[in-house]
Amino acid sequence: MIAGLAVAALLWEGYKAAGDPEGTVLFGVRVLPRADDLSMPHLWTIGRRLADPEMTGGRPVWLVVLQACLFTLGITAAGFAAGTVIGLVLAAAMQRFRIVERGLLPYVVLSQTVPLVALAPLIAGWGGTLMPPWATVSVIAAYLAFFPVAVGMLRGLQSPSAGGVELMRSYAAGWWRTLVKLRFPAALPYLFPALRLAGAAAVVGAVVGEISTGTRGGIGRLIIEYSREATSDPAKVYTAMLGAALLGLLVAGAVSLLELPLMRHRRHVEVATL
Amino acid sequence: MTAVVVDNVTKVFNRGRSDEVPALTDVNLTVGDGEFVSLIGPSGCGKSTLLRLIADLIEPTSGTVTVAGRPASQARREQEYGIAFQQAGLFEWRTVRRNVELPLELRGVSKAERRAKAEEMLELVGLADFAGHYPGQLSGGMQQRVAIARALAVQPPLLLMDEPFGALDEMTRERLQSELLGICAKTGTSTVFVTHSIAEAVFLSGRVVVMSARPGRITASIEVELPSRDEAGRQAPAYFEKITEVRQALRS
């Protein structure tokens, strides 16, 4: 992970040193981005910007970004949790009733092709009446997060062999106990990759949701605000992006923390969730 | 009381559809208490189907199955039998001990009692030292022994086995056969054992039921008396005579 960061830093600075400041243009199309200080500030510029105050005499940028991260983390966590629960329930329902799987699965897939931007104003309208405004962003995060969980979990729940299912039947175990004792544990190797995807989707949902619902206080809003200053203060917007990346890492870390104790003795299956 | 009565049972898969398959036709079978009966026949003769009917994993098209004096479905709900398949089918996320505990857990047996019972069963199959291992850490033969311990854990009066040693090598297979006989003798369990090995059927059983395919039906029932069921028994003339007899019954 440290090595990965180092490589990323090297690539950034390396391209900055070697790349054309005006970007590489081929047949009128810019195939490589500009490498000037305005588009790609030096890493140390970004680092220094983190330490400087946001505005003259204000709080330092790192503190503002961190606070925005925490705000968005709360939204992401709520959306991630809600999305996971919804995904699990949908998967269980689809496993239980063949007809639900046939009827629902196409719509589950369809739900993800509806552009989020079209949906956001509708959901934002619930803020203040049905729920506090921040919760509408969580709804958007949950809307993106439930999908990989539902699809991955369905496959996991269907993964036990006929022998295992027959064994449970021979023990006179009904659907619920078969789910708890056999299907759910068998589905865990499918669930965790799905949770990773869902976590990333929840972060994207929260950031984009904040922007499209105009929610203040989070990292999404900060990215928009700082990008307006990009011409005069190009490093600033990158500090906010670092914050968003940190958020993603935190969520991925949380999933790993959950996975570690549960998956220690398990074979890992190859899963293509989509 | 008899352990199993199969009365005039017919089983047709996909009934009324174009891919209709008659699996069993007019099958009658009685297994007495403490009796060891093997079902043998070519693939597709319905021996596994018959076992699944006794286990109430599938339902007969016509006829009745009675286990321990009760309808098969009731016997299943009351867990009158333990079952083991060709694939050990252990739950890889549970330790060996907790795999054996599974049927007890589903019966609501207390934790301490469960543990004691599982230890006892693992002792019986010679795997007491592996209680804390995970199935992935065991060989195929050991996994199969765990599966047998699991089937025996509820101390069922009836043991149903579907080619439990089919995937094992010859040496392991013979050792497990002797172990199984010892366990059955010790616990007085009635057993229905599906196999496609003539030698295995003769060595284990008090009676070998020979089946034929298309449609699946019972063609012969051969009583087996061996002087002993051990290494000497495997070399006794009676053993080879019975093997020949079963082979001829399978041919006819």
TrEMBL record, chain B:
Molecular function as annotated in GO: ATP binding
Keywords (A to Z) from UniProt: ATP-binding, Nucleotide-binding, Transport
Span of domain ABC transporter: 4-238
Entry annotated with the keyword Nucleotide-binding: yes
SMART domains according to UniProt: AAA
Pfam families: ABC_tran
PANTHER family xrefs: ABC TRANSPORTER ATP-BINDING PROTEIN, TAURINE IMPORT ATP-BINDING PROTEIN-RELATED
Protein name: ABC transporter ATP-binding protein
Classification lineage: Bacteria, Bacillati, Actinomycetota, Actinomycetes, Micromonosporales
